[in-house]
Amino acid sequence: MKFRWETEFKETEIGEIPKDWEIRKLGELLKSLESGKRPKGGALAHNPNGILSIGGENINWDGSLDLSECLRFDENFYKKLKKGRIEQGDILLVKDGATIGKLAYIKEAPEGKAMVNEHVFLLKSNNSKTYSRFLFYFLFSEIGQQQIESSISGSAQGGINKSIKDNILVFYPPLPEQSRIATVLSYFDDLIEVKKRQNEILEKTAMAIFKSWFIDFEPFKDGEFVYNEELGKEIPKGWAVKRLGEVVKIESGGSAPQKEEYFIGGKNPFVRVKHLTNYPCVEEADFINDEAVEQYNLKLYNEGSIIFQRSGESLSFGRVNILPFNAYIVNHLAVIPNLPSNKLLMEFLFFTLKNILIELIEERSGTALPYIRISDIEKKEILLPPPHILQSFHSLVEPLFQKIILNQKQIMTLRKIRDTLLPLLVFGKLRIEKV
């Protein structure tokens, strides 16, 4: 791979570019700009075995997709669509709502077939004029984001309309260079995606072991069982039934610093609801300074602590994450601290807590869920095996959790490198002569 620093630039209406680059309107580089729709009937038309319909809530700020809560509709509806079908190389842009401006690049259509709903634009590149992944990275850059933001019109949350084809201007290097830029940046994104999938598999593996041991009791079926009235089922003899609050102390996070001055020069990670993921680990954090920590009397929690959402938008309820770094947390989150006294229990508590949150959410199904009281969680009865069994489980799954945390740290490093390179490459300051 061969790089060189560019020294000759020219001014344009959207910034400085290399002398041999051009500026093009977004519309000149697109084959089409489409938006999807959803079938009449809304939830009644939802088919859990149908085709994925991607909305703004399924697109993350880092450009990735989160399809865990994606709606699905009947394949016949998908077949009748003239617009909105997702194909490899498409760019998704949220055009209205709370997540307006979010972008995603489609390396390959999820599950082979997918569509967008009416809140998402589908940008289909003209492959003879632009390299679609380069176009995505440009739109994802600071200049691209500024232009997308300035395209929002209307009252309340506003919206983005098809005038972006004429209003958004794109830095336009020669096609071979577009390909080289996209190749380098996508190398980091592809590595990030691989590590995310590894973490998903590692968590599912650990969950399968947890279910086998503590739900189905498969390793203990040859032993003696006794009927437990509190749980209403037979359990292995010698196992205890306790309230979660008797086993571990759950704590609430602290107040969120509000003033911008508390973020200036910030080096202390501060985790909010938006940082929770459907993967086992928190991926990012805001950073606050020492003054904010002191002013709000915030408590630092250790790497390996378990956090979950207890208030806020109901969409994120049920997410349980591990902290891959020491951090402070917001009061919408609760935490089981990773303390020496809890070491043996952490992996067991991670999955136990996930099951408890699912139960609480199901109990309140159909009603507003503004918060989950910590006391409600601590009152939940859990089945606690003897210490030697907990030790065996811990020894078996702790390496999986350690690998998850290591992967997450590598993801954060890869993302930092990509974010450093992206403006240098997309704006032509650092030129790639050979890949």
Question: Mind sketching the topology for me?
Answer:
Blueprint: E1 2-5, E2 9-12, E3 15-18, E4 22-25, E5 30-35, E6 46-54, E7 71-73, H1 75-80, E8 91-94, E9 103-105, E10 114-116, E11 120-125, H2 132-140, H3 142-150, H4 164-167, E12 169-172, H5 175-214, E13 225-228, E14 233-236, E15 240-243, H6 244-247, E16 251-252, E17 268-271, E18 286-288, H7 290-295, E19 306-309, E20 320-322, E21 328-329, E22 333-336, H8 346-363, H9 374-378, E23 381-384, H10 387-426, E24 430-434
Parallel strand pairs: 6-10, 17-21
Antiparallel strand pairs: 1-24, 2-3, 4-12, 5-11, 6-7, 8-9, 8-11, 13-14, 15-23, 16-22, 17-18, 19-20, 19-22
Helix pairs in contact: 2-5, 5-10
Domain Type I restriction modification DNA specificity: 18-203, 236-411
GO molecular function: DNA binding
Protein name: Restriction modification system DNA specificity domain protein
A few lines on this structure:
Helices cover 32% and strands 22% of the residues. With 435 residues, the chain is of the alpha+beta class.
Polypeptide structure, described:
This protein has 435 residues and is α+β, with helices and mostly antiparallel strands. It folds into two domains: 151 residues, Alpha-Beta Complex (Adenine-n6-DNA-methyltransferase TaqI, Chain A, domain 2); 214 residues, Adenine-n6-DNA-methyltransferase TaqI, Chain A, domain 2, CATH 3.90.220.20. 32% of the residues lie in helices and 22% in strands. A four-stranded antiparallel β-sheet has the order 5-11-8-9, covered by helices on one side. Strands 16-22-19-20 form a four-stranded antiparallel β-sheet, with helices on one face. The longest helix has 40 residues. The chain is globular and about 75 Å long.
